[in-house]
Structures are given as C-alpha cells and as structure tokens.
Amino acid sequence: MTRYILPDIHDTKSREFKRHPGSDWALLVLDKPLGKSIGYLDVQSDIDPTANFAMAGYAGLRKNVLSLAVDCGAPEPSRLKELIIQRCSAMNGDSGAPLLMIDGDKLKVIGILSQLSSVGDDVVSFGVPASLFSRFLEPI
C-alpha cells in the first residue's frame, strides 16, 4: 500500500471522529495494481431499481469464506443521499463488503456495506453509495 484516502470529514491528526453515514469508507492505494491479474469490477453511481442486487462479504462466523447474499433487493428510498438502505442477509463482519448491482452478466459496485440494524425480525443494511468515493478512484 502506498497511501490511503479518507472522506474530507476525517481529521487524521485528531482523536475526534465525526459520525456521519457517508463517511464510513476508506480507499487503499496499492503499490502494485491487481486488476490485470485478478480482474476489475465497474463502479456504478447510478442505480437501476429494477436490477437484481447482491452483497459479497466475509461474515464473522466464517471469516475465511466468501459469502454471497443475492436477496438484497433494490435500495429503499432514503432522505439521505449518502445512504443506501437495503434488506440483505448480511451478518456481523460483512462491513466493508461491496454492494453489487447485477447488470446482465456483469457485477457493478454501487456501494460499500457500513452497518446492520435489526427491525423486528428483519435485518436492515446501511451502505455508503459509490457516488461518495468514486471521484477518488484513479483511471485504469
């Protein structure tokens, strides 16, 4: 890793942390690009509500096994533009997992899972939309 990028809200010289839904992300800039050897995923800021959605993560119960939740459903309407609300079967430990939109035979990253909350018998997932960090991604 050569450096990291954080949202502007973070002051890395301070011990204070300002909690804000859209600030729960970081990008790592690697010293050697991996895309040519393992492949790329497109990052998509525009979300098609008629598409299928998934999440791929490493849950705390099976830390070394990639799990795929394909039951996420379209993001629910939110007053906050810096929040993706879905109902994925995510688990503790999945934080940081990519939220995926299935576009034909391609997967597109639409955000990053931030946290989970229980609402009755449902699990609601909250994610950071790609629109908040995609401007920092370097062109290939």
Keywords:
single chain; 140 residues; mainly beta; Thrombin, subunit H; two-stranded antiparallel sheet; 1 helix; 3% helix; 34% strand
Descriptive overview:
The mean pLDDT is 87. The chain has a single domain (3-136), classed as Trypsin-like serine proteases (Thrombin, subunit H, Beta Barrel). 23% of the residues are buried. The chain is globular. The chain is 3% helix and 34% strand. The chain has 140 residues and is an all-beta fold.
Mean pLDDT level: 87
Strand residue content: 25-35%
Estimated radius of gyration: 15 Å
CATH architecture type: Beta Barrel
CATH topology, by name, is: Thrombin, subunit H
Task: Report how far apart the termini are.
Answer: 17 Å
Structural class: mainly beta
Shape: globular
- The overall strand count is 9
What is the C-level CATH assignment? Mainly Beta
Low-confidence stretches: none
Q: How would you sum up the major sheet?
A: 7 strands, mixed
Summarize the structure.
The chain is mainly beta and 140 residues long. The chain has one domain (3-136): Trypsin-like serine proteases (Thrombin, subunit H), CATH 2.40.10.10. It is built from one helix and nine strands, in the order ββαβββββββ.
